[in-house]
């Protein structure tokens, strides 16, 4: 058999089927797709490859999928810390966005975020931000898989003036990227408190027509619930249900405020949840009942949220936090075992985003979206179970190689399609501009 690349690894963890760890196996890539997974000894006899990669202390896992982020916000990292969500948004982030959002800001911020994600093993991200067309272009240049939010919010921005304009631009974005293999555009109304009924109804109609998912912040804080009760006489989820939003194409991010009945109704609708534990902890927004949601049959994926509320885009770290917090919230150490959390960061995310046929597990025929983690260093020795170390012990600096669609984006920790020095210089320029603006604003 002929292959473009043959990777021999100490372990291959396909994620699907669950709980499988393949020892001394090899993975073959042909024309961007996984063409075979078989014992290394057999691969050496049967497969002729143009390139052979030896990873003797490494685990190959499906590329991690960050199911909710705001990539350009990397330029706001550390600018407003230790605040509750509404103060953070209305007193710091939205004023900064009003001043700074432009195609240049989005290009530079999203590029920095993509470099950080690739260096930490993420091969696909689901983004929600202004100028998603720019983020899409940067993602194509970087070679990373991206889901772009066709955003909608009641406020005017540098991207769009009103809901008609947001939705016109959404449809153009969808058209622009419809034939791009690594890019997908999905609806992204911001939150129940920031989008009115009429545009939400239009989103539901368009999502049905185009067969695309809807991704939205929902039940993030207790304040969101009380404000909705005051304004609409309903909890946000009940209002969204009346607008027919929940369903197998609906992705609710956060969900920290949930009653038992709401969990049952949400599970029955077939909707998905994206859990962002570190952002929820840092903003003290509340705790998502992940174990209860999984028990009810809800598909739960994992996201970092933006770097301005997390403050990193490290999915390995996010997995550890999700596992620990999930046990704490359930008051049960058996809740959220490591393998379950790895599934949340891979196959569950692919399922939520409608990408399950393409990515999310290491399976013959799927795209070669692969992350290699070096478990050789003393920080992950001795080793009894590679999945345990990936979730509980390994740091993102142990990610050695990353492939997306068979393209080698990170090789022995070197970014292959991005200029590291330029990324740093560019971040430095934004730092100067933002510091100067904050000083002039304060005086
Ligand atoms: C319409 S573009 C996205 C919009 O969302 C803001 N944002 C970032 N993080 C959060 C969060 O955790 N909850 C709510 N809104 C958030 C971002 O600043 C943009 O304005
Ligand atoms: Zn968010």
From TrEMBL:
Task: Quote one Gene Ontology molecular function term.
Answer: metal ion binding
Which InterPro entries did the record assign?
Answer: Amidohydro-rel, Deaminase_MtaD/DadD, Metal-dep_hydrolase_composite, Metal_Hydrolase, MTA/SAH_deaminase
Chain sites annotated for binding Zn(2+): 68, 70, 217, 305
Uppermost EC category: hydrolase
Locate the Amidohydrolase-related domain: which residues? 60-406
Q: Which Pfam families match?
A: Amidohydro_1 (PF01979)
UniProt keyword list = Hydrolase, Metal-binding, Zinc
**Binding positions (substrate):** 97, 190, 220, 305
- SUPFAM superfamilies, per this entry? Composite domain of metallo-dependent hydrolases, Metallo-dependent hydrolases
* Catalytic reactions of this protein: S-methyl-5'-thioadenosine + H2O + H(+) = S-methyl-5'-thioinosine + NH4(+); S-adenosyl-L-homocysteine + H2O + H(+) = S-inosyl-L-homocysteine + NH4(+)
Asked whether the UniProt record includes Metal-binding among its keywords, one would answer yes
Q: Does the keyword Amino-acid biosynthesis apply?
A: no
Q: What does this protein need as cofactor?
A: Zn(2+)
Spell out the family assignment given in the record's similarity comment.
Belongs to the metallo-dependent hydrolases superfamily. ATZ/TRZ family. Belongs to the metallo-dependent hydrolases superfamily. MTA/SAH deaminase family.
List the PANTHER family hit by this protein, alphabetically.
AMIDOHYDROLASE-RELATED DOMAIN-CONTAINING PROTEIN (PTHR43794:SF11), AMINOHYDROLASE SSNA-RELATED (PTHR43794)
Main function? Catalyzes the deamination of 5-methylthioadenosine and S-adenosyl-L-homocysteine into 5-methylthioinosine and S-inosyl-L-homocysteine, respectively. Is also able to deaminate adenosine.
Protein name (Swiss-Prot/TrEMBL) = 5-methylthioadenosine/S-adenosylhomocysteine deaminase
Source organism per entry reads Thiolapillus brandeum
Q: Which gene encodes it?
A: mtaD
């Amino acid at each position: 058999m002929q292959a473009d690349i043959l990777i021999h690894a100490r372990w291959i963890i396909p994620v699907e089927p669950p709980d499988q760890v393949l020892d001394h196996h090899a993975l073959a890539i042909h024309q961007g797709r996984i063409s075979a997974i078989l014992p290394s000894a057999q691969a050496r006899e049967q497969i002729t490859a143009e390139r052979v990669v030896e990873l003797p202390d490494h685990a190959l896992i499906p590329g991690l999928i960050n199911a909710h982020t705001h990539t350009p916000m990397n330029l706001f990292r550390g600018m407003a810390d230790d605040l509750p969500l509404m103060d953070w948004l209305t007193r710091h982030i939205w004023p900064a966005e009003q001043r700074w959002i432009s195609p240049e800001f989005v290009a530079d911020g999203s590029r920095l975020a993509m470099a950080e994600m690739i260096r930490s093993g993420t091969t696909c991200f689901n983004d929600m931000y202004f100028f998603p067309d720019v983020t899409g272009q940067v993602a194509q240049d970087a070679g990373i898989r991206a889901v772009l939010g066709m955003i909608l919010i009641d406020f005017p921005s540098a991207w769009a003036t009103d809901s008609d304009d947001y939705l016109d631009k959404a449809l153009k974005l969808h058209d622009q990227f419809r034939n791009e293999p690594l890019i997908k555009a999905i609806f992204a109304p911001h939150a129940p408190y920031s989008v009115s009924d009429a545009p939400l109804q239009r989103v539901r109609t368009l999502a049905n027509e185009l067969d695309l998912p809807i991704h939205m912040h929902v039940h993030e804080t207790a304040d969101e619930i009380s404000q909705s009760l005051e304004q609409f006489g309903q909890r946000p989820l009940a209002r969204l249900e009346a607008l027919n939003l929940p369903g197998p194409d609906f992705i609710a991010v956060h969900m920290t405020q949930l009653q038992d009945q709401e969990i049952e109704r949400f599970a029955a609708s077939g909707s998905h949840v994206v859990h962002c534990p570190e952002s929820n902890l840092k903003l003290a927004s509340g705790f998502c009942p992940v174990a209860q949601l999984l028990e009810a049959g809800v598909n739960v994926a994992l996201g970092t949220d933006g770097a301005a509320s997390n403050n990193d885009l490290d999915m390995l770290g996010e997995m550890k936090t999700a596992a620990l917090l999930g046990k704490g919230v359930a008051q049960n150490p058996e809740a959220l075992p490591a393998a379950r959390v790895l599934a949340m960061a891979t196959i569950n995310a692919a399922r939520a985003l409608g990408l399950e046929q393409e990515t999310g597990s290491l399976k013959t025929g799927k795209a070669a979206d692969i992350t290699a983690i070096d478990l050789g260093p003393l920080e992950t020795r001795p080793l009894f179970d590679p999945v345990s170390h990936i979730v509980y012990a390994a740091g993102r600096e142990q990610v050695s190689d990353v492939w997306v669609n068979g393209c080698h984006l990170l090789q022995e920790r070197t970014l292959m399609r991005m200029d590291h020095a330029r990324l740093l210089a560019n971040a430095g320029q934004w730092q100067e501009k933002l510091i100067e603006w904050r000083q002039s604003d304060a005086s």
